[in-house]
Amino acid sequence: MLDYKFIKENLAAVKENIKNRNMNADADKVVELYDKRTATVTELQGYQQKRNENAALMKQKLDNEQRQKYIEEGKQIKEKVAEAEKRLAEIEVQMEEAARQIPNMAHPDVPIGKLDTENLEVKKVGTPRKFDFKPKDHVALGEALDLIDFDRGTKVSGPKFYYLKNEAVFLEQALIMYALNILRKHNFTTFITPDVAREEILKGIGFNPRGNESNVYAIEDEGTCLVATAEITLGGFHSGEILDKSKLPLFYCGLSHCFRREAGAAGHFSKGLYRVHQFDKVEMFVYSLPEQSDEIHEKLRLIEEEIFTGLGLPFRVVDTCTGDLGAPAYRKWDLEAWMPGRTDEEHPEGDYGEVTSTSNCTDYQARRLNVKYHDDDGKNKYVHMLNGTAIAVGRAMLAIIENYQNADGSITVPPVLVPYCGFDKIGPKTEDSSPVYSSNRAKK
Length: 444
Prior knowledge:
- The chain is α+β, with helices and mostly antiparallel strands.
- β6 and β7 form a beta hairpin.
- The longest helix has 37 residues.
């Protein structure tokens, strides 16, 4: 959330930023309510001063008539104080609600645009593989090698759920351990976080817990939600706290299940593992001093690049345009891996698809979650908060399956993952190596 005074003093820039982000928010209303609050606070302070003066007069020697006069005046002042306090509380609720709709300011270098197609490519690493055979997408490969069962996932849980099977189970765990070990090398504190968070924590991070546009699953009558990312639980870890400046920055990483409704998400490129309702992810999260956050944002991106370079996957880095930025983000880098199965008429040999992102959210989330540090000047100030994906397992696995496929239908395992999963190739199953499943299996 932006500072109210900042919104008032930079109203034109705030409104232009809302427009560039293609969002709906009423900055004028925030300023109007801010001014109304200021006037109401002044009015309330005036009544409180009169109340104090009246109380002081009541302590003097008074005859009955004078005492009764001050008692009546005191009652009237008390009613005015209560009424002003009620109005002030209502104004503050309205002002906070309106201010929460306003996105963070964008970095001045962020490209202006409405769609992800307007993101700015800033770097390419690796060269997409030229196949001497017609490559398959990960859905076909996963089903042929008995690694993924989408049909039974849909039957049991609904669309966009799936079962991982056989070597894919070990491949997922290998990706998690590979990412965690890289983050341990970079001195991150590691967590396995809760899969449930209170609604106020989600709101603080910037997620909408309820409504048709919500991307999270709310738990009925509990005031909690399933988390969409460990950013929520790691960001809420220090909510309402004042941090020791000497301990900053704090580098955290968290492994969690992630649950997303993906409301409205559809299309050819959303199939298979690319966009699902449940997946595992290792998330990076940093609490920093304001002057550190730009440099740390670069560090998080470089760690993501290190992870995917180690996997041997071609990828590119894009500077996310204003219309594709989430409301809390000041700037966001996306890593997009090459996916040979991501084909259409315009991209017959494949295309890049997002696999990680890292955002600098400055003090936007910290204001909402009330996370501060005690500065050298004796004042408590808001920290900056940053997040970044180390590994979103489904998309990383998708890219590995498609890029490392072989002409005989097998998949080579990236060398860095072999020590974790214990095999270097995934081949077709035989009747002896895998149980035969039948749609009539449950029948007696």
